[in-house]
Amino acid sequence: MKAQVIIVGGGVIGVACAYFLSRRGVQVLILERHHLGAGASGASATMMNISGTSGVPEPLRPFAFESHHLILELEQDFEQPLEVIRGGSLIVAMNEQEAQILKAIFKENQQMGIDCSMLNGLESCRLEPLLSPQVMAAVYSPLNYHINPFRLCEGYLSGALRRGAKIAYGINVLDVQVKNDRISRVVTKQGDYYADWVIVAGGAYTPQILPSIDIQVPVVPGRGQAIITEACPPLTTHALEFLSHVYTRQVANGNFYLGSHTEFVGFDNRITLEKISAYTRALARGVPIIARLRALRFFVGFRPMSPDNLPIIGSIPTCTRLILATGHGRTGMRHSASTGKAVSELIIDGETRLPIADFAVDRFAQKSGH
Fold this sequence. Notes:
- The chain has 370 residues and is an alpha/beta fold.
- It folds into 2 domains: 2-46 and 150-218 and 308-368, 3-Layer(bba) Sandwich (FAD/NAD(P)-binding domain), CATH 3.50.50.60; 86-144 and 220-305, D-Amino Acid Oxidase, subunit A, domain 2 (D-Amino Acid Oxidase, Chain A, domain 2, 2-Layer Sandwich), CATH 3.30.9.
- Helices cover 27% and strands 28% of the residues.
- The chain has 9 helices and 18 strands.
- It has helices at 12-23, 61-74, 96-112, 121-127, 149-162, 206-209, 273-286, 336-348, 363-368, and strands at residues 2-8, 28-32, 47-48, 89-93, 117-120, 137-141, 145-146, 166-169, 173-179, 182-188, 191-200, 220-229, 239-242, 247-250, 256-259, 295-305, 312-316, 319-326.
- The strands form 3 sheets. Strands 1, 2, 8, 9, 10, 11, 17 and 18 form an 8-stranded mixed β-sheet that branches.
- Helix 1 (12-23) runs parallel beside helix 5, helix 1 packs across helix 8 and helix 2 (61-74) crosses helix 8 (336-348).
- The radius of gyration is 21 Å and the shape is globular.
- The protein starts with a strand and ends with a helix.
- The mean pLDDT is 95.
């Protein structure tokens, strides 16, 4: 089967690339091993913050601002609303040491031009009554929002399908073979596919998809364990992040999403009692109502982590027509629109409006001296 562009991976990055390419008239075929959003995308908290507890590396800042606004604009083109909750976000400090770290985050946000304010403990609890009186301080960013991750993936995909894109499920890609700066074939368990261009957006699985490519793609899986609680009446519109790297938000249906920091355990998809207990206790210290809610679902997502916390976006050195779009870590949803837009520009225009040189895959070879 032949297409202009084949996209390997039906997560948020893959379908975002399909959406922006199809908007410009390119014939796209997505190959997905399981189902839409089957990987990290389906486990995402989807807190669309310009900045967070870890800050924003400077090369990513243009992407962060563009995507933050662009996703809201794109909702008008999607078939279903994104369930946008525009309550802003709070980064919360629970002790004096964390409050000092928070001051540095606040200063960086101000330097980036982010609308935010520094609150003491009392002010934080007045703004968000769910917070514990033990809270020492918080940075409030009123323009941040959170959305339904499945609606975002469905929005990109349906927008692409409406414009002639196709998606094939149950396709296990084994290799992408190149020769003389051309795509030779895409090898799958279900047969070979052919295209002028290939975009590999396989998330944490990207290195496994490219066994014959002679270049290092140092993306590793970062396990994130998450919980969905029982539904409650509307209690908050804020996304709440803590400097212990746990976070929560109440979704449109009333459930609370509880998330944790990243674990480097390979593709071990087990839910661990030790981890779940530790981060729910940490969240309950900051948001006491959490301790009274029943958990309905436990699940895991594998975030595609790169060594320098920057995504990998661009062609491989040995074939300009093979493009990687991976390594977004915890920010794939957040930066999906800018990534899809940049990849479409790279294929159609030969250059991108926003700079992507810092995201090149060969940056790792350069650092290691190879």
